[in-house]
Amino acid sequence: MSTGYSELTGDYTIDTAHSRLGFVARHAMVAKVRGGFDEFEGSAHLDGDKPANSSARVTIQAKSIDTRNKQRDDHLRSNDFLDMDNHPEITFVSTAVEPTGDDHFKVSGDLTIRGVTKPVDIDFEYTGTAVDPFGNTRVGLEGSVVLNRKDFGVSWNAAIEGGGVLVSEKVTLEIEISAIKNT
Q1: CA quadruple 8, 12, 18, 24: dihedral sign
Q2: Does residue 1 belong to any structural domain of this protein?
Q3: Which domain holds residue 106?
C-alpha cells in the first residue's frame, strides 16, 4: 500500500470465508503438495499515509491443516510435524511494515510454529479496495514467503530410494487476505 491512501486508515478484521492461508511443499522431490488451514483469525491496523504505523496479527489453529488427504493431514498434526497437541496454534505478530514499491510492502514479524518463534519478512501486494453489497469496506492483500521448516523444529523426514527425501525442507506460505474495515 503506497502512501496517500488515507481512506484505508483504520482497523480491520480478516474475513476468513474469503481469505486463504496456504502452503506448498515438494513431495518425493518430484511433485508439489498444496494445503491450507481452515481455521484462523486475524486483525490489522492499516495506516494509508504512513504504512510504517500499520500492524497485523494472525492466529491459526494447527488442527485445521487440510491437504485433501486424511492420512497425510493426521501425520502433519502429529509430533513428527506440527505437534498440535502441545502446540495448537501457529501465530504471526508483525513488528514492522515497510513500503517496497507502488502497492508493495514488506511485513516483518515474529512467526511461531511448534513453539519456536523466528523473525520472517513477508512480501505483500495491496490488491485493491471495494465496498461490498452490504456496505463493508474491504481491502485485499496477497503475499508469500519461503521458510525452512527445520528452523521451526519441523524436522521429520524419510530418505527415498535413489537419493533425496520425502518432504522438502523449504515450504512456501501463500497468503490471500480479504479484510473488512471495522465500523
Answers
A1: positive
A2: no
A3: 6-181
Could you tell me if residue 34 is inside a domain? yes
Q: 31-37 and 65-66: which strand pairing? A: antiparallel
Q: Are 165 and 44 in contact (CB under 8 A)?
A: no
Number of domains in the chain: 1
User: Does a structural domain hold residue 57?
Assistant: yes
Q: What is the mean pLDDT of the chain?
A: 88
Give 35's pLDDT tier (boundaries 50, 70, 90): very high
Would strands 31-37 and 20-27 be described as parallel, antiparallel, or unpaired?
A: antiparallel
For residue 42, the tally of other CB atoms under 10 A from its CB is 21
What contacts 24+ positions apart, CB below 8 Å, involve 147-155? 147/111, 147/120, 147/171, 147/172, 147/173, 149/25, 149/113, 151/116, 151/118, 152/111, 152/113, 152/114, 152/116, 152/118, 153/113, 153/114, 153/115, 153/116, 154/81, 154/82, 154/113, 154/114
> pTM of the predicted model, to two decimals?
0.89
Q: What is the CATH number of the domain that holds 96?
A: 2.40.128.110
Q: Is residue 115 a part of any domain in this protein?
A: yes
